[in-house]
Amino acid sequence: MNILKESEINKLSTSAKKYYYEILREYCLSLKSNPNISTGQKLISKIAPIQRNFDYEVIGAENLPKDGAVIVCNHSNSHDFFTALESFNNLGLPVSVFAANDDLNFLSSSVFNFANATLVDRNDKQSCQNGLLELTGKVMNGNYGVIFGESTWNLHPYRAMNALKLGPARSACISGRQIVPTIFEYVEVPNLCEKEKELYSKCIIKFGKPITINPNIDSISQMLYVEEIMINMRRELWQEQGKLKARMKIVEPNLYVNHTWLKKFDALAFEYDSESEFKYLYFRGNTPKENEYHLNEKRLFVPGITRKEDKARVLVPLRKK
């Protein structure tokens, strides 16, 4: 079963669009899915508090529709998958996280599958389409489908969001369920750290008001609206936490580089490859094509990648003589 391109959908008449979505809806309903909290979700939710080493709070849980929804989240670090499982488990809600398996080893893939994740290979268009339809079927059967709309981590020092892909809107159009804009805001400590587990004081999980996607209006404009809402939600959280980092001159380069290195290379059983992940980002219009900054040889803070071999330079200020 194939999903049409946005340009192809826009050429359909209203009646043809209705028929197209009905066919996809029937197909998604035919896919097997479990409307209950999975054993993996429960188990990982018990283990997560030991692994995460920080507190979290939930805001706006009353905004979650009762019969499932497409949850569009920002994507920041290696904790996001587990944050989704734990938070929804504690709310008593079944969840499936839409995740890439192209950067997972066998053990990680097994853990994700055990937790009812919907895994896709981002390098394979058909895999992505099949995965989106599978997730949509789960949503139609009462699950909450979590999609990290930016496709990979946002490591930018002050940009609240990278551009969102169209998958969430397509899932909402097929399922007839609403989109819930959601922010996972990890409050970083204001000091240099030696270990990734020291980075965060807490995670704030904020659910925005649900948004109905109109299948007769182009998905691009509707996802732009969702993106704008999420940007404002995250900036509000920054302001409430006193983290006014929406401008470059507020960013502390040494702190940013130190924290970014730890996120990428010191997370439990995970490493982030900036070069390979960059290709999954979408940059709209005149938005600068950058997702990460580093300190170059002249100690200038410029767009670029902090590499694993930079460990000594990044962490050297922390070591006692």
Task: Describe the structure in your own words.
The chain is of the alpha/beta class and 321 residues long. The chain has 2 domains: 6-240, Glycerol-3-phosphate (1)-acyltransferase; 249-318, no CATH class. Helix content is 39%, strand content 15%. It has 11 helices and 9 strands. It has helices spanning 6-10, 14-30, 39-52, 80-90, 106-114, 125-140, 167-175, 219-240, 253-265, 274-278, 311-315; strands at residues 55-59, 69-73, 95-100, 118-120, 144-148, 179-188, 200-207, 293-295, 301-303. It has a 7-stranded mixed sheet with strand order 1-7-6-2-5-3-4, with helices on both faces. It has a two-stranded antiparallel ribbon with strand order 8-9. Helix 5 (106-114) links the parallel strand 3 (95-100) and strand 4 (118-120). Helix 2 crosses helix 6 (125-140). The model has no long low-confidence stretch (mean pLDDT 92).
Supply the helix-strand structural class.
Answer: alpha/beta
Indicate the proportion of strand residues: 5-15%
How many domains make up the 3D coordinates?
Answer: 2
- CATH fold-level label of the largest domain: Glycerol-3-phosphate (1)-acyltransferase
Helix proportion range:
25-40%
Q: Which geometry do the CA atoms define? A: globular
